[in-house]
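User: Hi! I have a protein structure encoded as tokens and I'd like to know what sequence might fold into it. I'm fairly new to this, so please keep things simple.
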């Protein structure tokens, strides 16, 4: 059981953002259609890298009215000026004292997610949360309980489900061309020049999964997307670098009740960043390179493949990669990023206008198991 003192410390950041009443600027609503003639008003809580790189540009593209919330006045001012957002608050309570919003988008470190989500839900706001949804299943249940009691939506930013390569791979596997899916191998490579490797003060360096913590939810929900529910078989670590990391290589083995395996290989010793999934089919393999939206299908296993078959597969691979790269570049240039697509589906699901639009693994309920498996992996890293 977690002590009251430790629980209180964990909630510190969230409570500070919620209750700190500081100088504010008023929100001037403009907005995106909410179905009743009004436009959606969105509060983005947290002005860090993920908010600046993904969340705010997606909401701007959608044309909603945005307000920013952050404990740091410097972060508020620099982010507000960059994205031309004049509405800025230093706390949620300050925001709610002056105005109201329809959606609260939480893009803060995960130890604040639970308190911020509950505070927003209690004020009648739908909530979308950057992954991981919460640090524990108990926190997830608290958030979902409040959401259900007020008939409000909770979404989670499992945005890799919207990558073109993942969607193409899903379509290919569903077509039956690969045969039964026997398992998958997911490889995640972190740059060995990442400054966070020696920055012990950065937020995810303080969590149980250390440098890999922010990636573990991604590998869990992507594995669940294709294999369904999983149980953990083993978690192994090793270290070969001279960084301050407790480990720099992580291997996770998970399986389903029908003996389909997910083998996760993670390393921070790579000269370049990369993530890919290879799906092991009964008849064919499929490979999806996530970093550059590439997709490769129809890899036949066996030492004596006919030459024409090899040529055909190479041509198929080339055309698939070229198409995926072009599509990914077009989507990025047009602003239709993974977060943009996810936020659109989240809004479509509000009010049950299109409740099936949001993927189950991007819902609060679907994220519960992701949090449970992420926690179990992190716990094993400490033993």
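Assistant: Happy to help. Inverse folding works backwards from shape to sequence: for each of the 383 positions I chose a residue that suits the local structure. Here it is:
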């Amino acid at each position: 059981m977690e002590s009251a003192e430790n629980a209180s410390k964990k909630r510190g950041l969230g409570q500070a953002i919620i209750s700190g009443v500081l100088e504010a600027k008023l929100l001037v609503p403009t907005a995106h259609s909410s179905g009743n003639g009004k436009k959606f008003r969105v509060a983005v809580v947290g002005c860090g890298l993920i908010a600046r790189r993904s969340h705010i540009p997606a909401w701007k593209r959608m044309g909603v009215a945005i307000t920013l919330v952050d404990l740091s006045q410097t972060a508020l001012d620099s982010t507000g000026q960059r994205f031309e957002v004049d509405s800025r608050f230093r706390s949620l309570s300050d925001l709610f004292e002056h105005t109201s919003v329809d959606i609260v988008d939480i893009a803060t470190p995960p130890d604040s997610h639970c308190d911020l989500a509950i505070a927003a839900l209690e004020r009648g706001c739908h909530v979308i949360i950057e992954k991981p949804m919460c640090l524990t299943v108990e926190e997830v249940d608290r958030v979902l309980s409040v959401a259900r009691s007020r008939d409000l939506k909770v979404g989670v930013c499992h945005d890799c489900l919207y990558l073109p390569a993942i969607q193409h791979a899903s379509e290919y596997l569903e077509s039956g061309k690969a045969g039964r899916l026997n398992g998958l191998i997911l490889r995640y490579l972190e740059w060995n020049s990442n400054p966070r490797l020696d920055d012990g003060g950065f937020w995810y360096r303080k969590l149980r999964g250390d440098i890999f913590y922010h990636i573990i939810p991604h590998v869990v929900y992507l594995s669940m997307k294709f294999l369904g529910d999983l149980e953990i078989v083993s978690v192994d670590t090793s270290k070969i670098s001279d960084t301050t990391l407790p480990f720099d290589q992580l291997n996770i083995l998970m399986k389903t009740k029908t003996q389909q395996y997910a083998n996760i290989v993670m390393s921070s010793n790579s000269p370049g960043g990369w993530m890919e999934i290879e799906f092991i089919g009964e008849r064919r393999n499929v490979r999806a390179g996530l970093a550059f939206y590439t997709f490769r299908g129809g890899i036949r296993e066996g030492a004596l493949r006919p030459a024409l078959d090899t040529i055909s597969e190479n041509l198929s691979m080339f055309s698939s990669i070229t198409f995926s790269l072009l599509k990914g570049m077009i989507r990025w240039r047009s602003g239709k990023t993974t977060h943009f697509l996810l936020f659109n589906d989240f809004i479509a699901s509000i009010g049950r206008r299109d409740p099936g639009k949001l993927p189950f693994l991007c819902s609060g309920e679907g994220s519960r198991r992701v949090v449970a498996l992420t926690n179990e992996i992190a716990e094993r890293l400490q033993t």
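A useful reference point when you look it over: The longest strand covers residues 181-191. Feel free to ask if any position seems puzzling.
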